[in-house]
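Ticket reopened. Same input as before:
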Amino acid sequence: MARGPLTSPRKTATQERSRQTVNVLLEATARILVKEGYDKASTNKIAVAAGVSIGSLYQYFPTKEALVAGVVERHMREMLDLVRADLAEVATGPVDEAVRRLVAAMIEAHRVDPKLHRVLVEQIPRTGRLENIENMDRETHKLVRAYLEARRDELAVSDLDTAAFICVKTVEALSHSAVLGEPRMLRKERVEHFTDEVTRLIVRYLRG
Amino acid sequence: MARGPLTSPRKTATQERSRQTVNVLLEATARILVKEGYDKASTNKIAVAAGVSIGSLYQYFPTKEALVAGVVERHMREMLDLVRADLAEVATGPVDEAVRRLVAAMIEAHRVDPKLHRVLVEQIPRTGRLENIENMDRETHKLVRAYLEARRDELAVSDLDTAAFICVKTVEALSHSAVLGEPRMLRKERVEHFTDEVTRLIVRYLRG
DNA sequence: ACAAGATAGGAGCCATAGCTCGCAATTTTT
DNA sequence: AAAAATTGCGAGCTATGGCTCCTATCTTGT
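Engineering reply: fixed in the latest deploy. New output:
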């Protein structure tokens, strides 16, 4: 086990009790991040909000960065799972249906916890472990590229990588800024219209 | 003039000497931001880098936030000017030409100072005065919407606001992530190809 | 030349944030 | 039940960062 110098906390929680603590800490971190923003979210505040002492906090998370990274990873995985699930269901279907589904899934994914999402993408410094916040995009890229490859002959696309890049980034950006910047665009009656438009944008690009 | 309590710096520089100081400070801030990132860019470091004392710094910028806001505003204006200029030149031309120009301009705008741009969008907390980092997008939106309105009868678009929203966000996002994430996509021989693709995406969406 | 305002300078205050460390409580093992 | 390991606690250390305030220098107007 011999952890390097004494200054290397973050045991891997083995007992149930400690797993709970880790969980509570992550949830409190998310809450505080939303409520206070990244700068003002001090580890002390987080510990208090979680009902856990700072000592305990630092037993599982060696730095504030690690703590936030935990929240980021959990949130991104949650979003990615949504997209992946929906995409799998239509992987063998026709293009327009698949695209529509991707768009809808992406919007839903951004609605999981918009306030948290906002803080994570807008306020978190992307340094050290936080650099790979964009992992979600990379994963999605792979999935979409694979789909496009399978349906290549139906598509009027010169270069699969460019096409996948354009599809993913476009849908992601539009979902993102619609959810965070134009929520009225997504009010019940209008979601469908918006989804239609984005779908049209992508489908016409992919087809001839 | 009577500034409130004595604790209200940020005089408006009147003499030439001080305007120079302000300028030097903004430039140093940009450099330090790029080199150190937002967190580690302390006002003291900035003052040293600028060859100006902290006292002087705080005479023109009441807070670190104000200092960074200065850099943000300058950078965004620079980018916006590029787009605006190009867009004005093709405002009366045909749609596909105009779109192509918008795309090219947006890519160029993102190439003004990519490293600084990255720090500004990725690391700056959007609180207080920094909230309106997205002003550039709003401005661009207006310009594009006006153009679309003028050419309405050539377009197969149901709702101008949605269309403008989609165009701007899409082109912005694609330029942004191409410059920052896929620079090889923009190597001399390939820029044109990429521009073509994005243009196609938008034009097909706007036309019938 | 002199006064008055504007500008530059920088030592140091104050607050806070991240984090440590020794000890107590709890759970597991023998 | 006693020993061993794991987990929890929180006062407080250390560093640093934003910012103040008072002094010195320079510019401008008379």
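Confidence is low (pLDDT under 50) at residues 1-8 of chain A. Chain A touches chain B at residues 37-39, 122-123, 125-127, 134, 158-159, 162-163, 165-166, 169-170, 172-174, 177-178, 181-182, 185, 193-194, 197-198, 200-201, 204-205 (CB under 8 Å). Please confirm and we'll close it.
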